[in-house]
Structure formats: C-alpha cells, structure tokens
Design a protein that fits this description.
The chain is α+β, with helices and mostly antiparallel strands. The chain is built from five helices and seven strands. It has two domains: about 70 residues, VC0802-like; about 70 residues, ACT domain (Alpha-Beta Plaits, 2-Layer Sandwich), CATH 3.30.70.260. It is globular. The mean pLDDT is about 95.
C-alpha cells in the first residue's frame, strides 16, 4: 500500500521552502510534488521515499499533514495514454479524487499518482489492461 503526504498550508511566500527544508533535513527524497490553492489556503501533495518518516518530520515541525493512500500507474508517455487510464476507471465507476503525474522517461514512460474512493475496484479494473500499477518499492526508489 503506497502513500503520499497532504500538507495543509497558508498561501504565503516561503510555504514550499519550509516543507522542502523539513523533508531535506530529515534526509528524505521528494519524488513528486503538486500544489493546489484556493485563495488564502492550499494543499501540497508530496511523494517521498519514506512517507511515515516524512509525516513524523512535518508533524514535528508543526505542519498539519496527513498520509493518504495512493495508486501509481505507469503509462506510456504518449498522447491519449492518460485518457485510456481514465476511461478504464470511469467504466468501472471508480471516482478519481486527486491526481498528478510526472514523466519517468521522456517519450517512453510516465507515472500518474492518484487517490480513489474505491482502491480494490481500481486495482481490479486496471488488471489485464497493460497499465502497470507500481509496487511500493518501485515508487519509493524512483
């Protein structure tokens, strides 16, 4: 079971620097990061190589943070690949609550990180489609 960190922040200068400083000082490697803001507040999603250690470090630094379960799908780095993933999940009535992506190898492989409300259904829907769900060890050592 894989996890990323969701950090609640006040939307002000230096907010990302503070998070990355804490994680860096804890010896953690940031694999991916995304941020969404709504006016004066935001949520930063961080994929690190050791989520429990990241959670502890950010909590010790007085951040409001939670570990959230994720799936990471490896797809081709090609037009329409993400659409194909989403069509599969949609047909299985799986709601994607959050997602972001990054390129693993340009022109070859990309990764889509997503939270869903029905994890077993999402995993089942993707079996046999050629979409590879990354194992925890694969995610944390990217």
């Amino acid at each position: 079971m894989a996890w990323h960190l969701s950090v609640f922040v006040v939307n002000e200068p230096g907010k990302l620097e503070k998070i990355t400083r804490v994680l860096s000082e804890a010896g953690l490697n940031i694999r991916a990061i995304s941020m969404a803001s709504t006016g004066e507040f935001g949520v930063v999603r961080v994929l690190v190589n050791d989520p429990p250690r990241g959670l502890a470090a950010l909590q010790a630094a007085r951040f409001t943070v939670a570990m959230r379960r994720i799936l990471v799908a490896q797809i081709p780095d090609a037009p329409g690949a993400m659409h194909g993933l989403l069509v599969t999940l949609s047909r299985a009535s799986v709601n994607v609550e959050d997602c972001y992506g990054f390129v693993i190898e340009e022109g070859k492989k990309a990764a889509i990180v997503f939270e869903v409300e029905k994890f077993p259904e999402a995993e089942h829907a993707l079996q046999g489609t050629g979409i590879h769900l990354l194992a925890d060890a694969e995610i944390y050592r990217m």
